[in-house]
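Session log. Operator J.P. requested a structure for one protein chain; no other inputs attached. Running the standard single-chain path with C-alpha cell output.
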Amino acid sequence: MQDNRPISDAGLRQMQNVMLNILATFDAICKEHNITYYLSGGTMLGAVRHQGFIPWDDDVDVVVPRTDYEKLLAHAKEWLPNFYELINPAEYPDYPYQFARIQDNRTTYLMMRQFDFVGGVPLDVFPLDDMPKKGLLRRWHFMKIRFYTKSLYYALINPNKHGRGLYSLFIKIMHKIVPLNKAHAKLDKIQKEFLGKGMPCVTNHFNTKDSNVFQRDVYGIPQRMKFETIEVNGMQRPHDYLFSSYGDYMTPPKKLPELNFRYLDLNTPYKNFVSKRM
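Structure written below.
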C-alpha cells in the first residue's frame, strides 16, 4: 500500500496521540456529566478493525444525541481544561462546519479546504438528529441541508485561491450576500426540525445520503470498547453501521484517503500562528 501523503509516520502518530488525549478527556467529561456519545465514521471503523486509530487516519469523530449535544455546548467552557476549547458555529461564524469541535489550543491545524479558519488539532463532535423514514419528507429535508451547506461553503472559501475568473467573482459575490450567522442558524434549525416528533431514525448530517440514516437501535446503548490505550463508547450494532457506511469494512482500501489538513504544527499555539500572519 503506497502512502503518498506529505506527513511522516512519526508525525502522524504524534498527531494521533494529541487527538487520543482529547478523546480521553471528552470521555471523562461525558461520564461525569451523563452525556451520551458514540464513536463515528473512521474512528468507529478503527476501533473495530484496529482497536484504535486506522494507521493512516488523521481525525477523530464522535456523535452526541441532540439534547446532550446542546448541553455540551452550553457547559463546555466550564467543563474543559483551559488548553482545550469547543468551537461551534453559533460563536464562531467563520467556522465553516455545522458541527462542533474540541481543539487543542496549544497546536496549529489548517483545514484541507481553502477556508481561512485556523484552529488547533481537533476532535469533531457531530449532533445526532432525529430523522423520518424514507420518503418525500426526508428528501426535502436533505435538499434544504445541501442548499444552505453549499451557500455557506461558497461564502467562506477564499476567492483569491481561484484566480480572477467567473468562479472567483461568484465566490466574492457569495461573501457579500450570505450572512454567516443567519446561514448557520438556518442550518441548525433545519437539522433540528424533527426533534421530539417521535421519528424512528437518526443521522449526524455529515452527509445527506440514506446510507447515513439509521434506525435508533443501531446506535442504541453505548458499548464500551478498546481504542488504543483507553476505553470509549461504541455503538450497539457496529456491524450494521459500518457495513452501510463502508461495505466490506474489514478490508483496508488500496488507495489512502487525502489528509484532512494542509498545515500542521504540534508545537505552536494557533493564536501565535494567526498573529504572525496578520
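Operator note: The longest strand covers residues 118-131.
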